[in-house]
Design brief:
The complex is a heterodimer of chains A (135) and B (379).
Chain A lengths: L15 H8 L4 E5 L5 E2 L14 E5 L3 E10 L10 E8 L4 E4 L16 E8 L5 E7 L2
Antiparallel strand pairs in A: 1-2, 1-3, 4-5, 4-7, 5-6, 7-8
Chain B lengths: L5 E8 L11 H16 L8 E3 L5 H8 L5 E3 L7 H15 L4 E9 L15 H6 L16 H8 L3 H15 L13 H6 L2 E4 L1 E2 L8 E10 H4 L7 E10 L14 H14 L8 E4 L6 H8 L8 H6 L16 H4 L7 H13 L11 E8 L4 E8 L3
Classes of the chains: A mainly beta (135), B alpha/beta (379).
Amino acid sequence: MSSDGRVIPVPTPETQHYWDGAKAGELRLQRCTDCGHIYFPPRPFCPTCGSRAVEVFTASGRGRLFSYVINHLPSPGFTPPFAIAVVELEEGPRLMSNIVGCPQTPEALQIDMPLEVTFERLTDEITLPQFKPAT
Amino acid sequence: MQRNSVAIVGAAESTHMGKLPEMAQIQIHADSALNALADCGLTIKDIDGVATAGHNAVELAHYMGITPTWVDGTSVGGCSFMLHVRHAAAAIEAGLCTTALIPHGESGRHWIGRHGPSIFPSLFQMQFEQPYGVTRPPTMFTIPVMRYMTDYGLTEEQLAMVAVTQREWAGFHPRASFRDPITVDDVLDSKMICYPFRLLMCCLVTDGGGALILTSADRAKDFPTKPVYIRGTGESAETPLISQMSDFTSSRAFRVAGSTAFEAAGISHGDVDHLMIYDAFAHLPIYGLEDLGFVGRGEAGAFIAEGNTRLGGQLPMNTNGGGLSYMHSGMYGMYALQEGVRQMRGTSPAQVEGAEISVVHGVGGMFAASGTIVMTNVA
């Protein structure tokens, strides 16, 4: 947890590559080399076929706004109202994100709008993937 | 499992509900359990099976003075009690115990003698969701709904009608937390919590409890209460991460639990006289009606708004007022089961005349888990 109370991710050995990628400015996903399934969150086997033959690759960072809320409740480290969103990546997986770089209003946040990844440094060790409207 | 081989013979809620600043959580369990024992004329020494959630089942057994031959601490959120009913029915049929107590108590408002804020911690949630500012359930459970609204044209007014309709039912119940009628405008003008969700689309936060006692159908005939038979059950789980729900317009856990229970019970939708769908938020009855198969995909918002789940409608639903108006201590499943039992006994203040089959459907976490119970008063 940071000094302002915001939850800071704690990587495990199985998720370290994801957080190392974010620190390096890359959004990293995993792909099963047996069945081809691309998945998130990280784990060292394919959740579709069970194979351990999986590889890490760098995603395009492009996606669309799949769904969201605009949170008016207090949240440590955030100033309400702010959007909590789920982004569907071009490669298929979905992940949670805030939508930065635009007003936090229903008018500015249109379902299916194109988004691209950006990175928010939280600590020396942890950088958080975030999404903003695509340019 | 055989249909109707096990019955609920004891059922009661805590003596008081709402604000219980004088009572620790485990005592709310005990108060509810003692009320259920009194309801069916048993003593604690008759109990040889115990199941609970959100609280240590061993601590509960010790506190109550129970020596169990069957213990179930399944804790998958607010539908845990549906799973307990399912597991208890199987345990009784298999001879693992004869008389099972399923108590619930929750100091949801005052937080006296209860565990920390996260009863069901998911480490993946802490790693991949909480850093984005999600906190309490209103900031998570609501996230899929904009996708549903976009895909199916559900309106904010239709969401509001869920709360309006359930407040009508709550008006029949002296024990309901909120009983005064509300309008769509009241709902839409209430405080914004998490757009598009306003305060009156979100559940209450209260203290309270309830308990059920189950035994074999053969023994049930000897009890003073009208037996409520377990005709069919189902359970499932999907993900602790709302962001990883496979379909944002439908719950896989709902579909699996529901279809399993309907098949086990050997019923079709037209057989159902009374329905409870756990409503932590206004969209849950909409997802539930569709995922249980009562209406087609995208049809439930209009189905509710048109009055089909109201008094006199074809499918009376959430007849206690639900988590939105009756009570919601955090794990509401127990209260949905209690209203199902009351309807099958013919004792609900909002009684559906002649009802013989009730379906009680619960959610755990944020679409994380699910349990469905088909109960009947016909042996």
